[in-house]
């Protein structure tokens, strides 16, 4: 039940400053942060739209250019399973790191990734929450969706280590349905511009 408190409680909107500047200041390398908006206004279709963009646009660019040492951060376990099955069927060299992995299996995948034996690692938000491991060998990060905790955004990007300046890149996929999470990352003022910008891609360095 809900009762009126006669105006004793007032709910106001929170203004977030975001952590993009914090990422730029605290990370060990200069990272180009790419924010890719997915223009879909149907909540029932956003999961499919995100999957299509990843499998038809983003992933082919990486596999065709033989890019390696890419960490793919996936907040939802359901999305994780979907991407894992897709990459398995396509015979892409990758390793899955989720909260259900046994310690020995996770250690083996991390070593294979660091040594370049596998090109991608799928990494769930809950795995990061429970383990807080630093994955060695990360050169590029893809956020399949924004993390619920904005601190994770900075922590994941901080794993990137590259030998040449300008080659560190992170890409974050978001839609209007990720409003709360993306606002906490980019800040309220930037979020309002992002969601209405004429171009779907924004870059922060």
Q: Helix tally? A: 8
Helicity level: 40-55%
Distance between the termini: 49 Å
Approximately how much beta-strand content do the residues carry? Answer: 15-25%
Rough outline? globular
Q: In order across it, which strands form the biggest sheet?
A: 3-4-2-5-6-1-7
Low-confidence stretches: none
In short:
This protein has 205 residues and is an alpha/beta fold. It is built from eight helices and seven strands, in the order αβαβαβαβαβαβααβ.
Write the layout of secondary structure elements.
Blueprint: H1 20-26, E1 32-37, H2 46-64, E2 70-74, H3 77-89, E3 94-97, H4 103-115, E4 120-124, H5 125-131, E5 140-143, H6 150-157, E6 169-174, H7 179-186, H8 188-196, E7 201-204
Parallel strand pairs: 1-6, 2-4, 2-5, 3-4, 5-6
Antiparallel strand pairs: 1-7
Task: Describe what this molecule looks like in 3D.
The chain is α/β, with parallel strands linked by helices and 205 residues long. The protein has eight helices and seven strands, in the order H-E-H-E-H-E-H-E-H-E-H-E-H-H-E. It has a seven-stranded mixed sheet, with helices on both faces. Helix 4 links the parallel strand 3 and strand 4. Helix 7 packs across helix 8. The longest helix is centred in the first third of the chain and has 19 residues. The chain is globular, with a radius of gyration of 18 Å. 30% of the residues are buried. The model has no long low-confidence stretch (mean pLDDT 89).
